[in-house]
Amino acid sequence: MWRIRLRITGCGLLVFGALSGCTPPSQGAATPRTNADLVEVGHGAVPRGHVTGAIASLSRAQIDARAAGGGALSVLDLLERMPGVSVLRRGADVSVRVRSSMRDPLIVIDGTALSGAATDVVVALRATDVERIDVLQDGGSTASYGIRGSGGVILIRTRRR
Predict the structure, then answer these.
(1) Tag placement on the chain: N or C end, fewer CB within 10 Å?
(2) What is the structure's pLDDT at 7?
């Protein structure tokens, strides 16, 4: 935590604090956190130990390990192997459910919340394009998304090329 102190005449001492993924420059070299340490939630990324609730995650290494078996994987193939996620395929129709909810989950790709036919975008997305998938499965985890997150939230971060 960084601390900035400003001395203001007549008012006393004012102290500001901020959380950061790096150490302040005065304390040595910056040490950024790895993506494995952080979980994406509605208001940003938080350390995994600070998250209370049901969250399933797949990192790039786990995605690569699942793809090593051969064959091209889609994001739907990855989602249906995650705990608490069901993918129902009826011909060309695909529906995704989180924790047996009757509502469609909110799908967020690179911070952009998709609505409507979001599963069409997920069907077209290849697993090789994905860096990380987090599935927020309970009310505490999805609260920052409001009513749209009541069916669960699927956060997909794509690779930056």
Answers:
(1) C
(2) 61
Q: Kindly report the pTM of this predicted structure.
A: 0.69
Residue 116: half-sphere exposure toward Cβ, Cα within 13 Å: 2
- C-beta separation of 131 from 159 below 8 A: yes
Euclidean distance between CA atoms 14 and 6, whole angstroms: 6
pLDDT less than 70: residues of the chain:
1-37, 39-44, 48-53, 70-72, 115-117, 141, 161
Backbone dihedral angles phi then psi of residue 135, each to the nearest 5 degrees: -115, 115
| Stated length of the chain | 161
Nearest-angstrom CA–CA distance, 145 and 86: 21
Helix residue ranges per DSSP H, 6-117? 60-67, 75-79
Would you say residue 8 lies in a domain? no
Number of domains in the chain: 1
Ranges assigned E (strand) in the chain: 2-8, 12-18, 38-41, 44-47, 55-58, 85-90, 93-98, 106-109, 112-114, 130-136, 153-158
CATH number of the domain where residue 129 is located = 2.170.130.10
d(CA 138, CA 154): 12
